[in-house]
Design a protein that fits this description.
The protein is an alpha/beta fold. The protein is built from twelve helices and eleven strands. 37% of the residues lie in helices and 16% in strands. The strands form three sheets. The protein has a seven-stranded mixed sheet. A hairpin with a 5-residue loop joins strand 1 (23-25) and strand 2 (31-33).
Length: 341
């Protein structure tokens, strides 16, 4: 709605300083801070994919290439992870009396959207963009799977491992689930619970992945390193946890990105590990944090990111050799090439 209002103002040569959902800086330097737009009803949003070239939808997934279309079944996230911007979105909406930012499409609306998409675009694959697909009532999961059996298309989603019960996994397998991505992020229970606000034990995570692996739905695991106050020892706690998990076929490592509005960004700024004006880059860019020992430096983080999959995959008696690959010089590059080949 904000984008439409801006576009219409430009088209009509109307003032730009009073559009809801924007701040406007005049040539004088004065800033007009307008209130936010009301939250939209996502059940009424139907993307017009005819605006895109058909090549836009061709993408690889799990070793195959599909004509893939995105689906949003809900917006926002119910969790409070301190590295994520979703809690901030919920807080802002509450503070501004906009209501609950977390909104799910009613199942009949979602069914109608998927049916229309199949009829109009002939997709080969559906990609659910929800933050955590299974963070919904059990009844909805059952009803979705019953409907989706008739769709007959493979699909992907992201979720948390603790939401994967044996019944959920069986239903999802029967419905045609092709792949799932899971964020573990950190393997140290104390840090994960007290700093990241993810209250689940390592034993629970390992048991969840046993259930997930037995479903025979392929899945990937995502990690984050370089978070505020993280040490090399904490990273190796994460490595040890991943080594105790079986069944995944892909391991992705990202570097902590201090998004504005997140708790951990504020922690980094408060500790003078981050300039308050710093702008985030990408989850694979070098860390923006400047932490003193024993915490990880940006160089340490870059080095670990190069080799974490090797520490996970190879026996510990080869770790001393693998450590050489953390340094991006001729020796480290040769060691990395040897183990990666």
């Amino acid at each position: 709605k904000t984008i439409v209002d801006v576009a219409e103002a430009i088209r009509k040569d109307a003032p730009l300083d009073r559009i809801m959902g924007t701040w406007y800086k005049a040539t004088s330097g004065e800033v007009s801070k307008n209130p936010a737009q009301p939250l939209v009803d996502i059940g009424k949003i139907v993307p017009d994919f005819t605006l895109f070239d058909s090549a836009r939808f061709i993408r690889p997934m799990g070793g195959n290439v599909f004509r893939t279309f995105p689906i949003e079944s809900y917006r926002g996230c119910p969790y409070l992870c301190t590295y994520c911007n979703s809690p901030m979105q919920r807080s802002l909406s509450k503070e501004q009396d906009l209501g609950n930012f977390l909104r799910r499409k009613k199942l009949n609306v979602l069914e109608s959207e998927i049916t229309s998409l199949v009829e109009n675009y002939d997709p080969e694959f559906l990609y659910f963009v929800d933050d955590s697909f299974l963070a919904r009532p059990k009844k909805e999961v059952v009803e979705f799977c019953e409907f989706y059996k008739n769709v007959g298309l493979p699909f992907w989603f992201n979720t948390r491992p603790e939401n994967c019960t044996e019944n959920n996994m069986r239903l999802l397998k029967e419905a045609g689930c092709y792949r799932i991505s899971f964020g573990i992020e950190c393997g140290n229970e104390s840090y994960r619970k007290n700093v990241l606000l993810r209250n689940v034990t390592n034993d629970q995570i390992v048991e969840s992945f046993r259930v997930i692996a037995e479903s025979q739905i392929p899945f990937s695991i995502n990690l984050i390193i370089g978070m505020p106050g993280e040490t090399r020892e904490l990273v190796f706690d994460t490595i040890e946890l991943v080594r105790s998990i079986g069944g995944y076929d892909t391991l992705t490592v990202s570097i902590f990105t201090p998004y504005h509005g997140t708790v951990l960004r504020n922690v980094a700024v408060k500790n003078k590990w981050l300039n308050s004006d710093a702008l985030t880059k990408h989850t694979t860019s070098s860390s923006l944090l400047d932490m003193p020992p024993p915490y990880l430096s940006a160089k340490d983080i870059d080095g670990l990111m190069r080799v974490i999959p090797l520490y996970v995959y190879f026996p510990k008696n080869e770790w001393n050799e693998i450590r050489k690959a953390e340094i991006a010089d001729s020796i480290g590059d040769d060691v990395l090439a040897h183990y990666s080949g």
